[in-house]
Amino acid sequence: MNTIRLAATAAAVASLLTVAACGSGVEAARASGETTTTVENCGRTVGVDAPPQRVVTLSPSQTELLVELGVADALVGLGQTDTSPLPPRIAAEVADVPVLSTDTPPNREVLLDAAPDFVVSPTEYEFTAEQGFASIEQLGGAGAQVYVAAGGCAERRTSASVEDLFTDIDGLGAVFDRTERAEELIAQSRARLAAVDEQTSAGPQRTVAQVYVEGNSLSVIGAGVEADIVARAGGKNVFRPDEPMFSSFFAATVGPEELAARDPEALVFAVSDDAQRDATLDYLRTTFPDMRAVRDDRLVAVPGSDLFPGTLGNVTAVEAIAAGLR
């Protein structure tokens, strides 16, 4: 999560909630004697007769996942590249791929000019025509299929879980004919999560608040994949997904008094760089000196990119938060 995504998706969520319920399933259907791979995604059927050859990813998280699946050679454009750094090995593999945008999704003309046949995105926000982005319909008219991370589908944004990552790996593995590699990635990730489960099963379940700080503005996260990551790490969120403030969005702005009253044992917060981490730590220590989390110095910083829907970083975030809660 970053400032742009938190604010922009909040503004767009009302219109996006009209999209049909999502989920993903993969099946092979026979069409005219050929095999068409179809994936159910955000209420749409995505079908390909052959692995896509001109792919654009709209976040570094999706770039990393596709490179790990072994389809780096198909990438022809990268979006929102400055929202999080790529691991050095992944960055080296995509060093020659054109950058279409840095801080925001690419505008309509730039994306269409890249002539993709497949676009992969973390959320549906990236296709908001009112923001100047190419809509899913416009891309379809230009011959491009669109896959949105399962946890980033509009109607699932507040109920997404880490399990959605495996839906994405499975679905994209089928689309790109990399099913064996997809199975390997899923097995590796599940093994890491199982190790966390074993470590946390015998320990105390600490109360946690997941926060995002920008200046003096404080937001809390109570739903979505972000909240599920905390739960998978063994934390008990003091903000519940059934609270009215999370009825249509996974995050809500609150006053310091509200957070202080909940008095969590740990605070988890997303950051984009060291400067933001230091600024957030300063704010939390200054604003909440008597909070148990601050007194015990149980303040856990997590790269915001690891909290995006559909990223392998979800597993890394579970591991990091579990370690910070001990």
From TrEMBL:
From the UniProt annotation, give the residues forming the signal peptide: 1-20
Q: Which SUPFAM superfamilies match?
A: Helical backbone' metal receptor
InterPro entries, sorted: ABC_Transporter_SBP (IPR050902), ABC_transptr_periplasmic_BD (IPR002491)
What keywords appear on the UniProt entry?
Signal
Which residues belong to any copy of the Fe/B12 periplasmic-binding domain?
54-326
Domain of life per record: Bacteria
Similarity section: Belongs to the bacterial solute-binding protein 8 family.
Name-wise, this protein is Iron ABC transporter substrate-binding component
What is the organism of origin for this protein? Rhodococcus rhodnii LMG 5362
